[in-house]
Amino acid sequence: FLWLGFFCLLAPLATKAESIQSFDVNAEVLQNGSVLIAETIVYDFGDLSKHGIYRDIPLKGIVISDVAVSDGQGNNYAFSTSKDRNNLRMKIGNPNIFISGAHQYQIKYKVKKALGYFKSHDELYWNVTGNSWEVNIEKASFSLKLPQEIGLGNIQQDCFAGVLGSKESACSFEAMRFQSQRALYPSEGLTIVVGWPKGIVAGPSFTERFFDFLMQWDVYFIPVAVFFYLFFVWWKKGKDIKLNKTIIAQYDLPSDLRPIEVGCIMRQKVSTLDVSATIVDLAV
Questions:
Q1: Average pLDDT of the chain to the nearest whole number
Q2: Which pLDDT does position 207 carry in this prediction?
Q3: What is the distance of C-alpha 194 from the center of its chain?
């Protein structure tokens, strides 16, 4: 009985837990300021049977497009995207198929408005892994490619590993290549920052910046624009005409107006009296 109890205690320990074996990201900054992201995630489901994974990407201030998901061998995964709070949620996997063990997911997408443009330099501040994973990430890495080669002395770089907002430097970097120095626990992630001199990236055009501004402040801009438009129309056509001569009362209806039209002009509404008078007028 003692041996049986011992093995019963060890049985749960023999179950292999799920984890992310590696989370590798390659990023390329384009001349126009967009960033191409390619994530390679090796997810080990262990002994569990699941349909796939969720990948949540924070959307604060950025726009993501051209999403594609494959296994890295040319086979595409079924996936769908949705917005969950302030995140873009990718649901990856076939709902009719259960899988277990290690599987590789290669996620590619384009990001706009990810760069920061400062007076002295341009910068990419990027949360590489996100902080919504509920499993350990055994190792994470990130590499960045710019539109042109520049000396490493002109590059500013740093990285952080831990919970959201953490300043813990449990990571290393060299030549725009970053690596976590320990496993990342649930709700922890890897964040990098890279700065380079002005002129390397052209950035968005004036038209793109203008429309981005409108999209960002449309809640305030549209009412103001409508107000000024209506004010302009009123200024041109809505004010009463000023006459520099004596106004003589006219006791007969204008020949080109019906009683209902005159009543509407005077009172800004139509009454039953106006309708009756118009019927009589039409009969005459």
A1: 88
A2: 79
A3: 21
**Contact yes or no for 28/35 (Cβ under 8 A):** yes
Task: Return d(Cα 175, Cα 156) in angstroms, integer.
Answer: 10
119-160: pLDDT as tens digits: 999 999 999 999 999 999 999 999 999 999 999 899 999 999
Angle formed at CA 25 by CA 72 and CA 99, multiple of 5 degrees: 45
- The answer on pLDDT for 17 being more than 70 is yes
Write the single-letter amino acid at 216.
Q
Residue 203 vs residue 97, higher pLDDT:
97
What DSSP designation does 13 have?
A: G
Pairing status of strand 19-29 against strand 140-145:
parallel
The tokens for 64 are 């993501």
Q: How far apart are CA 284 and CA 276, in angstroms?
A: 13
Q: CA 188, 193, 198 angle in degrees (round to 5)?
A: 165
Indicate the pTM of the whole model: 0.72
- Alpha-carbon gap, residue 201 to 40, rounded angstroms: 26
| Of 61, 68, 82, 79, residue with least CA distance to 40 | 68
Q: Give CA–CA dist 114/60, Å, rounded.
A: 9
